[in-house]
Amino acid sequence: MLYMLFIYGDETEVKSLGEPEMGRRVAAYTAYMQSLGEAGVLVGSNRLRPSGASTTVRVVDGKTQVLDGPYAETKEQLGGYLLVDVPDLDAALSWAVRCPGAMHGVIEVRPVWQM
What is the pTM of this model? Predict the structure, then answer.
């Protein structure tokens, strides 16, 4: 079953990291990604550009609204995602707990509704 692991964190906190801490985080993600690959569960993943680079689109009463920036102002922003193919929610949660982002933010685990 496919699950999306959404990685949320505080962009301002990440910007303030020094080289040593950033290096540790990159190394942790590198090891984590390698584990996902070796287990054969990783379907896809990407890191996202900062939320300020986003554009929000909505249609209200037939009129298109295009706005610069994220949909909502929040303390934690969506910074990336992992798509995993695992047997069940427990397996997805097991991978979410091991994600380095869980130590500095939140991992939302959501089943994919395949169409």
Answer: 0.88
Please name each of the domains of the chain with its CATH number.
2-111 (3.30.70.1060)
E strand map for the chain = 2-9, 42-47, 55-60, 63-68, 77-85, 106-111
Residue 70, judged by CB atoms within 10 A of its CB (0-12, 13-18, 19+), counts as middle
Cα of 45 vs its chain's centroid, Å: 8
Alpha carbons 105 and 83: distance in angstroms, whole number:
18
pLDDT digit string, tens, across residues 75-84? 889 999 999 9
3-state secondary structure 30-50: HHHHHHHHHHCCEEEEEECCC
